[in-house]
Amino acid sequence: MTPIEIPPLVRQRAMHNGAAGVAWLGALPAVLDDLADRWGLALGDAFAGGTAGCVVAATDASGRECVLKVAMPLDLDEQESFARSVRAHRLAAGRGCVELIAHADDPSAMLLERLGPNLADLGFTVQQTLEAIADTLPTFWRPVGEEAGLRTGAEQAQWLARYIATTWDELGRPCDRRVIERAVELCDRRANAYSSERAVLVHGDAHGWNTLAAGYGAFKFVDVEGLRSEPAHDLAVPMREYNEPLMDGDTARLVRARADWLAARCDVDAEAVWEWGFIERVSTGLANVRDFDDGDGAMFLEVAGRCL
């Protein structure tokens, strides 16, 4: 079997998710070998980034450099999320996001074009990162109809409300109840604000580690989640990330200023950006508390608490 060094955060997430995660880790070497045979690939090293799967450098039979991504779908919802990502890649067709070359449903895997380094590896500052993300997102957004089979922004907001309330309880209530109540309230607001006429294809996880150089000063996204929602929804992720600068000063004012700046850059509603950002900050904070030991989850929740 091909020896692969599994990135620590991928291994940590798998181990924190019980028998399903352990089984995924155990099967991974054989899965990689099977996919390499199926698609005629020579495999290289695993990339260090990411948490939700194993991403390996590969070269196909023609000599084209590509990337093999084996997802870690630990439950039915994550399996559906993988299928949604495949549909989103097909809709985008390489415009604003990485090109999908091939995919498999069992195991959940994609063969993708290989891009350059991400914004973090390029040494971008937080402000430069926000600019690159905000300027790349409109190249990805495009109108999509119900026939696309994507989860809507309203459905995602309802799902997040349930996830936030349930996970907070399961984790022993790691933050103030008011943070959770506010997040659930905002989920209801964004669900009610959803309009199918204004909906576009949104990425769903557009942060600097998912924004890669695509040549000639351009960038493309990887790890597309694929939703049918308002453009402001996509700005929730750059809103929720990069918490350190927000902790140094008047956090509530700094968070509002970021929402205003992102909204102006992309010509969307600033209040919608702030609301989606609060929701994403809370849900991601809870997910990180559950899955990782690095303390980042607590920082997400601390920033949310300071915004009340």
Level-1 CATH class name of the largest domain: Alpha Beta
**Helix amount:** 40-55%
The fold-level CATH name of the largest domain is Aminoglycoside 3'-phosphotransferase, Chain: A, domain 2
Total number of domains: 2
Q: What is the structural class?
A: alpha+beta
H/E topology pattern = HHEEEHEEHHHEEEEHHHHHH
What general form does the structure show?
Answer: globular
CATH architecture of the largest domain: Alpha-Beta Complex
Using DSSP, what is the number of strands? 9
The order of strands across the largest sheet is 1-2-3-5-4
**Integer average pLDDT:** 92
Please tell me about this protein's structure.
52% of the residues lie in helices and 13% in strands. The protein is globular. The protein has two domains: 8-113, Phosphorylase Kinase, domain 1 (2-Layer Sandwich), CATH 3.30.200.20; 126-306, Aminoglycoside 3'-phosphotransferase, Chain: A, domain 2 (Alpha-Beta Complex). The mean pLDDT is 92. The protein is of the alpha+beta class and 308 residues long. It has helices at 8-15, 18-39, 76-92, 126-140, 153-170, 177-193, 231-234, 236-240, 244-247, 251-266, 270-291, 296-306, and strands at 42-46, 53-59, 65-71, 100-104, 109-113, 200-202, 211-213, 219-221, 227-229. Helix 1 crosses helix 2 (18-39) and helix 11 (270-291) runs antiparallel to helix 12 (296-306). It is built from twelve helices and nine strands. The strands form three sheets. It has a five-stranded antiparallel β-sheet with strand order 1-2-3-5-4, sandwiched between helices. Strands 6-9 form a two-stranded antiparallel ribbon. Strand 1 (42-46) and strand 2 (53-59) form a beta hairpin.
